[in-house]
Amino acid sequence: MLTLDLLNEMNRLHNEVDRVFTRGTPTLTMTADAPNLNVWATENELQVTAELPGIDPNNVDVSVEGDELNLRGNFSEKQLKEGQRWIRQEHKPFTFVRTFRLPFRVESSKVNAQYTNGVLSLTLPRAEVEKPKKIEIKAA
Predict the structure, then answer these.
(1) In this structure, what CATH number is given to the domain that contains residue 46?
(2) In angstroms, how far is the first alpha carbon of the chain from the final one?
(3) Half-sphere exposure of 131 (CA within 13 A, CB side)
């Protein structure tokens, strides 16, 4: 299995080759740890936040497939108006894919997604069949 350091180095080398041979703006694919995720659970739901500063929420796709949460998206290059030119451009276009295995099944039709100040917040309600059931003990 590839380590994160090796993946980062391969990504860096790929970008350098793109820069040398294309003389254009290479497309960056974010590494396995980007965007940053925070995940926590309660008995009834899972909460996820993803840091996506500057990314248009229309360019983000969230899906639940089985027991996995998938985040996909892209950051598009800013289009300059006529007469404008770049002096410095450090934000390059990129795409990202993050897949996270859920600790329990969720009601995918009830997932809530909010995007505020560059942070995507997801609430994933636990599926009823997954919730712990209290067993009533009957006295004889």
Answers:
(1) 2.60.40.790
(2) 57
(3) 13
